[in-house]
Design brief:
Number of helices: 16
Oligomer: single chain
Number of strands: 14
Mean pLDDT: 87
Number of domains: 1
Helix content: 25-40%
Largest sheet: 10 strands, mixed
Bound molecules: zinc ion
Strand content: 5-15%
Structural class: alpha/beta
Low-confidence stretches: 1-23
CATH superfamily: Alkaline Phosphatase, subunit A
Shape: globular
Length: 476
């Protein structure tokens, strides 16, 4: 892998006829950046304690972890683009799910280079699987499989899906047939239902009422999405070494929104379902986490021992503030920007003392914020950060040697010189306007209210980690 990176770099330098990477004398370790939407420490904590999240626990044991500060509003397209660029929404130009004309934001609207573009500029190879706002795919060294068609899946849960016949979902294009074949198998209804029963729901009672059935169905879309990008990554990563790999899982957010009341019923003064349904769905949230943990474990194994792994969530999750059932039946919420999760391990990452030390202390340190990820990934790849990035290096997770190496890179003014101009491209699928109207009427903001205002960083220390005794919850 290192030799490939070095070779790619040498070829790139020859091709570019310049020496923009002269400071990177040493071979770099590959970086795996795994984004997990809505991953929340208060769910992860008892799972780790009970030994049910062994792969994330193993990364914590050999690396660093803590709360990751995030932005309000907590809109996924905005924050995941900030993770990928180190920039605020005003800088990167992705302001929400839909723009003022209710068009889906596409990658062509992004102002400035994301990690994959910057790595490419420096001769490095990046794979990107299912990251937010990546349709149309961009021509980089490596493989890019877009989270396409948010528009077409609006009524489900916004998670990515690949659709036959839509152009620019896969780069390089010659991989399209193969990738779509994997997506077709991974998203086949009977396959998804098998995974849903095995990994997330278990056998469900037949007499679920319509609302619960709806929540389950919406989650199936998420399971299909996560399974799809995971299977694509699993097929392609081993045969094509990359310097940076980015993979996104959306399900913990989806499960948290829909099943928080079943997971922590004591936080709610109302119940909308039968005791049998409540019991059947009580562990859906932690079970989804366990499934993601298993997929992370497989990715870590594929990444190899010399890789640096970064697990990042864009925000946490907690009970909604409403005292009565809402129309969407959303019971988990994150609008006030509870901190996300950062877990890092591998070359250059400091060993913090493992999760058991954290349990003893009973407090989680803060490890930067969503803007810190891009400069930290660049530093690990031997590329200087840019002064026009909002974030700075997550210094506290790095070893002294890695810090010295990254500090020696210095910083450039910008990585965006010569980048294409933003362009409006119509997203491939229908916008389902009726649904958008209904959501807007319910106060669900899909369109940016005031793009002239930037998102605000919220201090993670405002939030306490909610812990329950390990034996107090039926799931642990
Ligand atoms: Zn969410």
């Amino acid at each position: 892998m290192r030799r490939c990176a070095a070779l790619a770099l040498a070829l790139a330098l020859l091709a570019a006829g310049c020496d923009r990477s002269s400071k990177r004398a040493e071979p770099i370790a590959p970086v795996f950046l795994i984004g997990i939407d809505g991953l929340e420490w208060s769910v992860l904590h008892p799972l780790i304690r009970a030994g049910r999240s062994p792969n994330l626990a193993a990364l914590m044991q050999r690396g660093s972890f803590g709360k990751l500060g995030t932005l309000q509003p907590t809109h996924s397209p905005v924050i995941w683009t900030s993770v990928a660029t180190g920039k605020s929404r005003k800088q990167h130009g992705i302001f929400g799910f839909l723009d003022g004309d209710r068009g889906v934001y596409t990658s062509s609207r992004r102002r400035g280079r994301a990690l994959w573009n910057i790595a490419d500029l420096h001769g490095l190879t990046t794979h990107v699987f299912g990251w937010w706002v990546t349709w149309p795919v961009e021509p980089i060294r490596g493989v890019m499989v877009s989270a396409t068609s948010a528009g077409g899946r609006i009524t489900k849960n916004w998670k990515g899906a690949l659709l036959p016949g839509i152009p620019h979902q896969v780069h390089p294009p010659e991989l399209t047939d193969r990738v779509l074949a994997i997506a077709r198998d991974a998203g086949a209804p009977d396959h998804v239902e098998r995974i849903a029963e095995r990994e997330v729901f278990g056998p469900l009672p037949r007499d679920l009422d319509a609302r619960e059935r709806d929540l389950v169905d919406q989650t199936l879309w998420s399971i299909a999405s996560d399974e799809t990008y995971f299977e694509i990554a699993k097929a392609l990563v081993p045969e094509r070494p990359a310097d940076l790999t980015m993979l996104y899982f959306g399900g913990p957010d989806v499960a948290g929104h829909r099943f928080w009341r079943h997971y922590r019923p004591w936080e709610f003064s109302w119940s909308g379902s039968s005791p049998a349904a409540d019991a059947a769905l009580a562990c859906t949230v932690p079970r989804y986490y366990q499934w993601v943990d298993r997929m992370v474990g497989e990715m870590v194994a594929l990444a190899g021992e010399d890789a640096t792994i970064l697990i990042v969530s864009d925000h946490g999750m907690h009970a909604t503030a409403t005292s009565a059932p809402n129309e969407r039946y959303t019971t988990g919420d994150h609008q006030d920007a509870p901190p996300g999760v950062l877990i890092a391990a591998g070359p250059g990452v400091a060993k913090q003392g493992g999760w058991d030390a954290f349990l003893e202390r009973g407090a989680l340190p803060t490890r930067g914020n969503v803007y810190s990820i891009a400069p930290t990934v660049l530093g690990l790849l031997g590329i200087p950060a840019a002064r026009d990035m909002e974030g700075s290096l997550a210094r506290e997770i790095l070893t002294p040697a890695a810090l010295a190496r990254i500090d020696a890179l210095g910083a450039v003014d910008t990585h965006d010189a010569g980048f294409r101009e933003p362009e409006r491209v119509e997203a491939p699928a229908d916008r389902e306007d009726e649904f958008v109207e209904r959501m807007a009427a319910l106060g669900y903001i899909l369109v940016p209210e005031a793009p002239e205002d930037d998102a605000v960083l919220v201090d993670p220390e405002r939030f306490q980690l909610q812990t329950d005794p390990a034996d107090a919850h039926p799931c642990y």
